[in-house]
Every structure is written in C-alpha cells, then in structure tokens.
Design goal:
It is a single chain. This protein is α/β, with parallel strands linked by helices and 180 residues long. It has six helices and seven strands. The protein has a five-stranded parallel β-sheet with strand order 2-1-3-5-7. Strands 4-6 form a two-stranded antiparallel ribbon. The radius of gyration is 18 Å and the shape is elongated. The relative contact order is 0.19.
Length: 180
C-alpha cells in the first residue's frame, strides 16, 4: 500500500491528562498494523502547528475548557470527516468539568490557581487563554460521530474503533467493555 492510499488520521489533546493518548500508545504491536493503513497527520506525538485539511478520522481527548480550544474544535470539525470523542473528559467533561460547580467557575479557577496559592507575584498571567465559564464535553460544541468511554479508555477499545472505521464499518460499542 503506498502513502497516497493511507487514511489521514489525527489525534488532539485538549484539557485532560494525556491518559487517553497513553492508551492509544498502549495498542503496542497493533500500532504496526495501524501504521500500514494510516498517515498520522496531526498529534501531540508530532510537531504540527496547524490542524490540516481533509482528515478522515480525528480522535480528541479532553474537555473544552477555553476559547482557544473551542475555536480549534470548530476548525477540526470542519476539516474532519469522522470525529471521535476519546475518553471520559471528551465524552462527559469528567474531571475537567468538576470546576463547573463553582460560581463563576472560570474566574474562580484562575483566582485559585494564580492568586490564592501564590507566595510571590500573585497575578493572573496575560498569556492564559480565556476560560469558558464552564468546561464542556465535545458534543456540546460540535457534532461528534462516535464515543470511546473510559478514564482512560482501554487500548483494545481504541483499536476496535479505529479498525472498524478504517474498514468502512460503523463500530458497535454495545457489548464492548471499557475494560477490554
């Protein structure tokens, strides 16, 4: 199979812990089979600055917590045929969304992070992206085609989803445990 026949796949890490990407890597030998079928065009594993056009499948880890991520997610959706929420933060907001219970959670998070706990120079830096009032799962911002639950999701479940999508089949998640 030549490079032109490979399917363009991307992974993205928004607000989360990177555990989902670690599970992606935990596919171990199955990654060799995937590498024969895909070209990884964007990922935290690669130094690509701008999200590319014409991506067949994108797996996104993490909740949407700030304006930059919200805009990136909209760009990704417009450039991706099949978008997959990867892990509980992307699916439900999970740990990232715990801040949503705080009044004015965006400001409360910044105050706690940069002022309340500071010993010196208690100031919110100018470089911090503007937080959304509440952290959101992906489907509250854009259309999501498939979901892979788990914190983190099992590597076999990630591989099942990718294998089915690459074969042109619709994955059936019923009966597939997040624990393998």
């Amino acid at each position: 199979m030549n490079t032109n026949q490979k399917i363009r796949v991307a992974t993205v890490w928004l607000s989360g812990c990177s555990g989902c990407h670690m599970s992606f890597l935990d596919q171990d030998e199955q990654l060799i089979d995937l590498a024969k079928k895909i070209t990884l065009v964007h990922s935290p594993f690669a130094d690509v600055k701008e999200f590319p056009q014409d991506v067949a499948i994108t797996l996104i880890e993490g909740a949407v917590a700030n304006e930059e991520q919200k805009e990136l997610l909209k760009t990704i959706r417009s450039r991706t045929a099949v978008l997959v929420s990867l892990g509980d933060c992307a699916v439900t907001g999970n740990v990232v969304a715990l801040r949503n219970g705080l009044p004015h959670s965006d400001q409360a998070v910044l105050e706690r992070s940069y002022k309340d706990t500071a010993v010196l120079n208690a100031k919110i830096p100018d470089q911090v992206p503007k937080l959304l009032t509440h952290a959101r799962p992906l489907h509250e911002i854009v259309k999501v085609d498939h979901y892979i639950p788990g914190c983190p999701p099992n590597a076999d479940l990630i591989n099942y989803m990718l294998t089915e999508l690459l074969a042109g089949r619709t994955p059936t998640m019923e009966g597939h445990s997040k624990y393998g």
